[in-house]
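OP here, attaching both records as promised.
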Amino acid sequence: MTLRSNMSMRLDHVVVLVADLESAENEWAAHGFTVTPGGIHADGQTHNALIGFADGSYVELIAFRVPNPSHRWARYRNFWGLIDICFCASPLLHTVQQLRALGVAFTEPTEGGRMRPDGVVLRWRASFPERGDLGLPFLIEDLTPRELRVPHGNGALHANAARGIAQVRIGVLDLHAAQPAFDVLLGKPEELPNARVYHLAGCSVWLHQPSAGSPDADWLARRGAGPLAITFAAPTPLVFAAGSGFK
């Protein structure tokens, strides 16, 4: 069985953990992206900058502001780069209840937020997969208008003409163990050798089990399941990979 609302499930953003936010902003700008300052999150532990796209998705560059964060992403401090994926899900509580009924456990939605540099306060709810070994995304629902959270207009125009995120590749250590949960969340996939492809509005999600002994398999063995690469929709395709950056 699949989630009844999965036909409307869409990519919200991908998360890139960086050691220094200003340096990361400069790096992404050098690759032709327009970078929008994001602000400080409500817990004070992190701040971010955003790269928004015409398709409504965005890249979040996020950095810690404290030396010893008590944060769900603190475990990735030795694995800078692409670390997580987020999908829009509204109403979130109903979605979480459906997922649980279908055997895919997500946490109770909790409220988060941040203050933009211009003083605008943003609020949202988020829910996270209870199993961390399947590479599942987390889910978000806006409490303030989404257009306040996500760069648009000139903020979504880029010198490299990138229009959005065309593909997300998620790496797992056991494809057959991870697929059932993704099927519930995203629907029926196209089946390829060592991969499953979920075709969503605006992008595709590739669930992939790297070959044993490959660099990707080694990366997953050390970091855990999760995003391996994103490909941007642009005249010249541009790939950003976990652990190695732009290709």
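Record two, same layout:
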Amino acid sequence: MRRRLLGAGADELSYEIRAIVKKAEQIKALGQDIVWENIGDPVQKHAQVPDWIKEIISDLAKQNETYSYCHSKGVLATRQFLANKSNSLGGVQISPEDILFFNGLGDAIGKIYQFLLPTARVIGPSPAYSTHSSGEAAHANDHPITYKLDPANNWYPDMEDLYNKIKYNPNIVGILIINPDNPTGRVYPLDILKQFVEIAKEFNLFIITDEIYVNVVYNGVKAYSLPEYIGDIPGIALKGLSKEVPWPGSRCGWAKFYNRDKDKDFDKLCTTLENAKMLEVSSTKLPQLAIPKIFGDPRYPDHLKCNNQKIGQRSKKISEILGEVKSIYFNETQGAFYNTIVFKEGMLKQGQKLQIENPEIRKLVEGWTADPEMPLDRRFVYYLLGAKGICVVPISSFCSDLMGFRVTLLEEDEGILESTFRGIKDALEEYLG
């Protein structure tokens, strides 16, 4: 082309959670059945949306008004409903005008980073969720800036690492918290969340919380929402329908703005996001109309409780299978749909392999892993895919120096769940010797 089309940040746009599917499809074409442990889609893993929720959506689809435009910020009655739910938690209060709808949280995340100055950085956790780390890095034309989560300490954040990176990088303007966390499944206690706020207050930062899993908790823990601990710090809480209903195909997420009046620059960011959505004329209407009807239904709390209990039981089963493997760090999860398994230092080496019976698949995997510069956890993931047909995601692709892989806790079929994780255990033992 006459001039270069893309900035350096385009190279940061990667999503291994989906990219691994291309490899799995090649192996599937050679006759290997695939167990999809790469992505958090409950419906794909045999979850059933309750009939009463389907009936709500069906009834709305029959109403002519459902097909019209709605306000670009979102349906007013739905924003009022969500503001009331937020205000019932206590803490910082908001109005419907402090809520803005997006076409899924991916849209929200992309727009938040898009309108920041390239030099204004948001520090996030590592291992990172790819949508956040890639979007933030792409806007800055640089690598993402992260603080460490420690697998040897229940995946809690390394607050000293966070503090020092903020102190010595004046370009950092915000802190990202994912709670419950993806990919680790950790739910942060209130005292840790308050430490984030103290750091933000000291350095005059805002906070972003990704709370898509805030109602997906189990094993006796509570997940706190941003208004319960943010105090007078400006912040944005991100929520959506995809995980807890579950309705990932709805592409419906929303942002809640807290303490807009505390900082003029933060208020201007919120206004800019609102103006950007105004240019789209209308937000996605059908799922918004369904929100008060689903969340306000007396059956919804029992729906959440039942689903969370099942996920908690799966976390226990996975712990039974993998918890005693000595070569890995294993932490039983408390929230979200995921567990991140990390290899202890020195366990991964060049040349390690799994036996693959199918010669075509073996040749394919050997070709993929021939690059000596390939991260060693990705090498294991490719061999696991070829030998066992289990599709997981390497943790090195989550903007992390750690070596490991992420699995889901979504499989509803108990037989498939057990065989999958016993297959992973067998693979670990064979691969590591």
